[in-house]
Design a protein that fits this description.
6-stranded mixed β-sheet; 9 helices; 253 residues; 3-stranded antiparallel β-sheet; 37% helix; alpha/beta; Rossmann fold
C-alpha cells in the first residue's frame, strides 16, 4: 500500500503511566472503507484523536500522501482534507439542515481568516450543499431544524456536513450510535455511496458488527491499546484471538 492516502505509523499515546495506544499503525486508500474495532477502552477513539490532531501522541507519524503532518493542529489537518465525525451526535440544532451543510462549506475559509466573517456568503458553496442534500435524501427536510429530526436523519446531516467540507479522508467515530437497524442500514448505504461517488477514503470505528462486516474491506482490531490483528475483513473476523477479544464465541462458526 505504498500509495495509501492515510498512513499513520507507530502511534503511541500515554496518559501518565497508562499506555492508551501502543505503537499502532493504520493505512487507508482513497475509495476504501477500513474498520477499527475492539472492546470498550481498547484505545480506538484515542487513536482517532491522535490522527485527527486533537490529541498529541508521544510517538508516531502521520503521513498522508507522503507529507509529514504529525505536528499540524487539527484545524490545519481538516483544511488539508482530513475530516472527522464523533460518537456523540453533533449538529447545530437551531440551524436548518441546509444551514448546517452550508456552514461546513465556509468553515475552512473562515477558520483561516476570521475577518472573512464580514463577507461569509462569498465563501459558501451552495452547489456542494445541494449535491449533498440530493445524495443523502435530505432535500425534503432541508428547511427543517436539525434539532427536530429523528436520530437517523440527524446522523445523515452530520455525514452531509462532513462531506460538504470536501475531505479526501473521513474518520467516522461510531456513526451508527443511537440508530435502529433500519437507520443503520440506510446510513451504511450512504457511506458506501459517498465512497463510490467521491473516491473518498473512510476509516470508521464501529461496534455494530453487521455494519462492519458489510461495508469494511479491511479491519484493524485493538485490544488494550495494541493492534492484535489486521487484514481483509473476512479473514480477520475468523481469527480466534479476535473472536476471543471482541466478537465472542457466537461468531465462531
Amino acid at each position: 500500500m505504498a500509495d495509501a492516502h492515510l498512513v499513520a505509523s507507530g502511534i503511541t499515546v500515554r496518559f501518565g503511566g497508562l499506555v492508551a495506544v501502543a505503537d499502532v499503525s493504520v493505512q487507508a486508500d482513497p475509495g476504501e472503507i477500513v474498520g477499527i474495532i475492539g472492546p470498550n477502552g481498547a484505545g480506538k477513539t484515542t487513536l482517532f484523536s491522535a490522527i485527527a490532531g486533537s490529541l498529541r501522541p508521544q510517538a508516531g507519524q502521520l503521513r498522508p500522501d507522503g507529507r509529514d503532518i504529525t505536528g499540524w493542529p487539527s484545524h490545519r489537518r481538516a483544511r488539508a482534507g482530513l475530516g472527522r465525525t464523533f460518537q456523540r451526535l453533533e449538529v447545530f440544532g437551531s440551524m436548518s439542515v441546509r444551514e448546517n451543510l452550508a456552514y461546513a462549506t465556509e468553515a475552512a475559509a473562515l477558520g483561516a481568516r476570521p475577518v472573512r466573517l464580514l463577507q461569509r456568503n462569498r465563501h459558501r458553496r451552495l452547489d456542494l450543499v445541494d449535491d449533498a442534500l440530493d445524495q443523502l435524501g435530505l432535500a425534503r427536510v432541508a428547511d427543517e431544524r436539525a434539532a427536530d429530526l429523528p436520530p437517523g436523519l440527524a446522523r445523515l446531516v452530520e455525514l452531509g456536513r462532513a462531506l460538504c467540507a470536501q475531505p479526501s479522508m473521513l474518520l467516522l467515530d461510531e456513526p451508527s450510535s443511537g440508530l435502529d437497524v433500519s437507520e443503520t442500514v440506510a446510513l451504511a448505504d450512504h457511506i458506501v455511496d459517498a465512497v463510490r461517488r467521491r473516491h473518498l477514503g473512510v476509516v470508521l470505528i464501529e461496534h455494530d458488527m453487521s455494519m462492519v462486516l458489510r461495508i469494511c474491506e479491511r479491519l484493524y482490531v485493538l485490544d488494550f491499546g495494541v493492534c492484535i490483528a489486521d487484514g481483509p475483513t473476512a479473514t480477520v473476523a475468523q481469527l480466534p484471538e479476535v473472536r476471543d477479544a471482541y466478537l465472542g464465541t457466537s461468531h465462531a462458526g
